[in-house]
Each structure stands twice: as C-alpha cells, then as structure tokens.
TrEMBL record:
This is tRNA-dihydrouridine synthase. InterPro entries: Aldolase_TIM, DUS-like_FMN-bd, DUS_fam, DusB-like, tRNA-dHydroUridine_Synthase_C, tRNA_hU_synthase_CS. NCBIfam families: nifR3_yhdG. The active site is at residue 101. Its cofactor is FMN. The gene is dusB. Belongs to the dus family.
Amino acid sequence: MQIANISFPEYPVFLAPMEDVTDPYFRLMCRQFGADMVYTEFVSADALIRGAGRTGQKLELGRDLRPVAVQIYGKDVDSMVEAAKIAEAAGPDILDINFGCPVKKIAGKGAGAGLLRDIPRMLDITRAVVKAVSLPVTVKTRLGWDASEIIITELAPRLQDCGIAALTIHGRTRAQMYTGDADWSPIAAVKADPRIRIPIIGNGDITTPARAKECFDRYGVDAVMVGRAAIGRPWVFREIKDLLEGNPSPEAFTPARQMEILKRQVADSIEFLGERRGILHVRRHIAVTPLFKGIPNFKSTKIRMLRAETMAELFSIFDEVAAFLNPPQVHSRPEADCFTCGYA
C-alpha cells in the first residue's frame, strides 16, 4: 500500500491522532512496537498561527521514526492554509486534516466533524490545503453527522477529487461520539466504489488482533487505525502485527513486562512535561491499562495510583502491585531488540 510516494508493508496498522495521548514519546513507543505510521495530537489552526500555549510543542518530530503525520483542524480556508504551511515546515511526511472530531467545543464551532454539516466549506478547505503544500494531504472523517445523514459514500469521491492522497473513515457518526459499535459497512462500500483510487483506512473498535485481521479480510481496507485500544497498551501493535504477519512465535507480554512498559511511559512523560504535568498526562494510560484488571480488591490501590504526585510515590505503588503479578519470563526475542528492558 502506498500513500503518494510513501510505501507501507502489507496490512499497515497506524496509531490514530489523539489529543493529550499521542505525544512524541508515546508515538515512538508505538512505532517500536510495530505501528507503521503515527500521528501527532491534533493541532488547532488558529492556535498554531497565534503560537498559543504548547501548540508548537505538538509539532516536535525529532524523536519520531518515519513516516509521521501532523494533523490540523480548523473551520475556515485562510487559517487552515496558513496553519498547513507552518505544519509543513516542521517536516512531517504527511499532513492530515481532521474533519472527524466530535467533541462539542470543536464540532459545535464548525470545525472537526462540524464540517460534515457544511460540505462545500469542507471541500474548499481541502482543495486549498492540497494546493498550498507539497506534502501528501490526507483526511480523517466520520460516516456523517447522525444516523439520518450517512453521507460518506458520496463524500469520499468528492474529497478524492480535491486531491487528497488517502482517506481515513471512523465508522461512527458525529452524534454517536465514541458510543455504540463502529459500523464498517459504509467503509467497505467506499472501498468497493470503482470511483475510489486512493487508499482507504478504517478506524473504530480495532481493539484486538483478531478484529484487525477481520477488518482487513471482511471490509477490504488498505490499512487500519488503532485509537483508544492503544492507551495504556502500546504493545497492542506488536500483538496485531504478530497475527497479521503469521509470526510463529508471538511476543509474550507478561504482566511483568507490561509493568516495565508502563514505568517507561511514566518516566518518558515526566521527561517530556516535568514531574507534575507528566504524571497528570500519563494518568489516563494508568487508568485504562489492562495490566491491573483482575487484581482482587484493587479499587483503593488504583485511587492511590491516580492521586500519586511524584514518580517515586507512583513507582512504589507499582512495586506493591507487582506482588500480584506473574514473575518475569524470558523474552522470546534477543535482548538487543527489547527496548523496554533498556537494551535499545
């Protein structure tokens, strides 16, 4: 599969852009576990132009393994063009436009999925951004505004005609937000449309290796994108790739190894943001990681974890939890490949 002149292996698996999640360190970790491409947190066009807050920090790509995409969002042509040029200067491989964010403060103001209610403006923005930069431009969007407006099958060819190099479709409407099941049938219909010449990337409920394989086999997509399932579980990419590639000796992510990975996430987050902000940032990973599921009487310990204010305090609690976990096992891969243990 190719996006413009960028080649990907068979069955590409991408890390979705997620606000307050896909920071440089997390992107690097997901790449090292097998993600074929990663995306930055989405970047507000208006904030990027103003140089507001930590917006510019989102464009720091120095640690990324290539290819990497920057995603921007906004509601008018001029600001999106100016932001696209600023983003291009940061040196990504792909520039992605967000037409899918459903949250009220974005969609309610006419950006993100809000543009599903103003298709002419969406197309104007897309054409203008494609013309303004030399990078491949891609789009991420949803099925439509709500169940009565499933428009993606007719929208996809129109976006393609604007010059985009690939299209990612989340199998939900804006009204669904992140609830209910993702519907991949319209995604399959877009992929089967003879008018479509660009790669179609499917997104929504890719939570297991088996589901990823099913989406390739059943819906015919060119790539899949993993979002929330990677939070607190970056090793999900290696699990998916092992199945897709027919790896006869899948890598074993024992509880002890998962703990090592989680500790590295904490340390990386603190290095990136400082101790206080870094711990606040990584809490969502701690809250949802499957590592702690099934431990008896864990609620009070989880609360202590989420209230910890220093790395020393948090790691001390982790060490207490380790008593409930299985002992470490010998890794199936050579130590030189095991970055989570400090060998790479």
